[in-house]
Amino acid sequence: MIAACTSAIRSLRREDRSHLKQLVEDTGVFSPPEIDIALELIDAVLDKPAQKDYCIAVSEDNGTPVGYYCLGPTPGTEGTFDLYWIAVSPGLHGRGIGAALDAHAEETVRALGGRLIVAETSSTPRYDGTRAFYHHRGYAVLSRIRDYYRPGDDLVVYGKYLVPHHGG
What we know:
Blueprint: E1 8-11, H1 17-26, H2 32-47, E2 55-61, E3 64-73, E4 80-88, H3 97-111, E5 116-122, H4 128-136, E6 140-150, E7 153-161
Parallel strand pairs: 4-5
Antiparallel strand pairs: 1-2, 2-3, 3-4, 5-7, 6-7
Helix pairs in contact: 1-2
């Protein structure tokens, strides 16, 4: 049995950037353009602390970042938030860090008056673990767009309602 990791979740700090870049690269899941996007969002938070588009929280263990998430309100919606990134150091998967980050993200969204978290991912086998994580954390598949990223690579949209939703 893998021991649970006791990590603290805190706000992003400038010195986290290089650790998070390495973490995202080490997952082996994200493509170079996706890594660039992750860094753009990290830089947006670091360089413009007053911006309200993105919120990043970091999980650390013994002072070292071991995971993070990035979320933000979805423009043009009322109470919907996009979970842009959630990543954990590959050697620490299965220790509850991702679950703790997701729970923290839910608390953050609720505190900001949110009601729905949306996460998008790929249908390819390299994202099997990501999709299993969302399913295990109570997200449901809301939609699937065939050949979205490229032929054979569908967009799978997950969602988690934090308050009861109205039919539709």
